[in-house]
Amino acid sequence: MSDLATITQKIAAAVGENSGLGKTVKVDFGDAGKILIDATKVPNIVSNEDGPADTTIQITMDDLKALAAGALDPMMAFMTGKMKIQGDLSVAQRLAPLFKS
Question: Which of 47, 67, 76, 86 has its CB surrounded by the most CB atoms within 10 Å?
């Protein structure tokens, strides 16, 4: 199983059927792929599709793994440019628990 598939499964499990988020979020890993979380419907849908999102998070898989492991602080990742956020920043902040391992 690829890293993208594994991360997608973990995020889908964390999101569950109804995350309460009510928004769409895209995690963009560049050439490694994307994860789209559509929490506007119940059940929530997590896929590797590309599409419009209320918030887009650009990050490498290695940096996401470091965030999940607690080795990289989310605020430091944002401030140093390791993680870029386009759209609603408050939505991105509500996702933090989903990325914990």
Answer: 67
Q: Quick one: which of 3, 53, 9, 1 has its CA closest to 29?
A: 3
- Count of structural domains within the chain: 1
The string of pLDDT tens digits covering residues 24-43 is 999 999 999 999 999 999 99
Give me the helix-helix angle, 3-15 and 61-69, nearest 10°.
50
pLDDT score of 99: 66
User: What is the pTM (predicted TM-score) of this model?
Assistant: 0.89
User: The domain containing residue 16 runs over which residues?
Assistant: 3-91
Q: Establish if 100 belongs to a structural domain.
A: no
Q: What whole-number distance in Å separates Cα of residue 15 and Cα of residue 39?
A: 8
Instruction: Copy the structure tokens of residue 91.
Output: 């939505």
Residue 68's Cβ-count burial label (10 Å; 0-12, 13-18, 19+) is middle
